[in-house]
Amino acid sequence: YELFQGNDAFHSSVFAVVAQISVEEQARLALSKDSTFFVCALESLQTSKEAALLINAIPIVKNCCLSETLRALAQEYKVIESLLQLLSSCASEAVRNLILDTFEILAIDGTCRKRLVDVGGVSKIYSLLNNSISENTLLHVAALFHNLTFDGVCSDALRESGIITFFIEQLQSGNEAMTISCLYALNNLMCSDSSRQIVSRELSQITLNPLLHSRNPLICLMASKLKLN
C-alpha cells in the first residue's frame, strides 16, 4: 500500500493485479484481514470517472463481495449507491456490464437486495432499457432481474417497474440464454399472488408454442411449466 501513491494510470495497474488475485478465496481472506486495497477500490467508485481505472477497480469489488465480511464493509461505503450513480453516468459499456455483474453478486445477500430496492435501484437499472444498448448488456440486465425474482420484495419492485412486459417481449428474441433467463423469471413471478395476474394477462398476448417445441430441453420444460401455471 505504501507504493500506492501516484496517478490514475498507476492506480489502475495496481488494481489490475489485485483484481486478478481477488478471484482466489485465500486472497479474499487476506483482504478481509487488511482491507486497504478493497477500501481503495470502493473509494474509487465515488471519486473516479476514468473507465480504464474503473475497469480494474470494479472486479475487485465484485470478487470481494463474495465474502460476507467484505460485503458488509462494502455496504458501509454505500457500494450500491455508488454503482448506481456510475451506471447512469458512465458511457463505457464494459464498465456498465461490470457494474451489473457486481449487482448479481450483491444480490445473493438479502440486505443488499433490500437496499437495492430501497434506493430505487430496480427502476434505475430498468431505465437502461430506454437507451440503445448492446445485446450483451441486455443479457446482463435480464440475468440480474431474473435473480431478483427469487425475492418477494424485489418481485414487487420489478412488477411495479414494468419489467414483466420486458421479460415477455424477450421470450421472442431468439436468444437462448435470454429466453431461459426470462422463462425462469416469469415462473418465479407466477409464484407471487400480486404478479400472477399480470404475467397471465401479458402471456395471453403471445403464443408459447415455438418455445414448447424448442430443441433446447430446458426451454421446453420451463415453457411447459409456465403454460401450466
From TrEMBL:
The lineage of its organism: Eukaryota, Amoebozoa, Discosea, Flabellinia, Vannellidae. SUPFAM superfamilies: ARM repeat. This is Uncharacterized protein. It comes from the Eukaryota. InterPro entries: ARM-like, ARM-type_fold, Armadillo. Signal peptide: none annotated.
